[in-house]
Amino acid sequence: MILTEQQKKEFNENGLLVIPNFYDVKADVEPIQYGIWKIIGLLIKKYSIAVVQMPFASDTFDFGYQQLIAADRRFGGEVYDAVKQIPAFMRLVTHSKNEDLMHELRKDSLPGLAAGGYGIRIDNPNEEKFRSLWHYEYRDQLRSVDGVVFWSPLVAITQELGPVQICPGSHKDGLRRSYINDPEMSGKPGAYGLKIENEEEIISNYGVVSPLSNPGDLVLMDFLTIHSSGKNIGDRSRWSMQFRYFNFSHPSGIKIDWKGCVANGVQLKDVHPELIIE
């Protein structure tokens, strides 16, 4: 058993659970950080960026990244696409402990791992275009209403870096509708541009928690829990890992053939037109 009965109760009540030191930093996390450090070094050399990369260290694995995107923001996109293909990251995504957690949180479930639903976010200082605003995971990932978000940082999350913001208990209200083409969301691509109906009221009713965490810690969220990325006002990018497990056996997933959304090119309105407000 990984979880205590109290932890299971907390997750069911809040749609949220923080597990400190879930992953082994030395064995599971540092190989990912090292891969990122190597990729940044390759691109520094490729584009002849005037910076001497520091030797690898877990705390400073991303040294040189700020200079890279200062030279050309598109170079950051290359890093983003590359790092999700690091074998050590894939090993963590498919770690047997993750599946064991799903079995404990969802008794008698048949766990699935959302293809295209895993990656490493890089939230740069004072950058709003790609900041993920208030949403719930099923809306943007689909597959099954019965799912769990796995979120784990690669850097120590401070208030300045902008910890993930979560509305505990908000999962209990089920599926929510979202506006498309809302003027407030103009300029945000794809699912980033959707806005939840009655968003301000939901946040006010449930309140917001912003758990601080360190590499190795794991934050779990129900697929229906309302959350958003915090604002990074620090001087370093916020690096975090996300992947999604879902329950094949839940009727909602069976009904939609476990279709994916966003990264799979599926439009939410084609699967759930009732959840879209023009």
Radius of gyration: 19 Å
Distance between the first and last residues' Cα: 46 Å
Q: What overall geometry do the principal axes of the alpha carbons give? A: globular
What about the largest sheet? 6 strands, antiparallel
Number of DSSP strand runs: 11
How would you spell out the order of helices and strands? HEHHHHHEEHEEEEHEEEHHE
Report low-confidence residues grouped into runs of 5 or more: none
Tell me the strand percentage band: 15-25%
> Which structural class should the secondary elements be placed in?
alpha+beta
Mean pLDDT: 95
Number of helices: 10
State the helical fraction: 25-40%
Description:
The chain has helices at 5-14, 25-46, 65-71, 73-83, 87-93, 96-105, 137-141, 199-206, 251-255, 268-271; strands at 16-19, 111-113, 119-123, 147-153, 165-166, 178-179, 195-196, 218-222, 227-228, 238-247, 276-277. It has 278 residues and is an alpha+beta fold. The strands form three sheets. Strands 1, 2, 3, 4, 8 and 10 form a six-stranded antiparallel β-sheet that branches. Strands 7-6-11 form a three-stranded mixed β-sheet, with no helix packed on it. The longest helix has 22 residues, at 25-46. The model has no long low-confidence stretch (mean pLDDT 95).
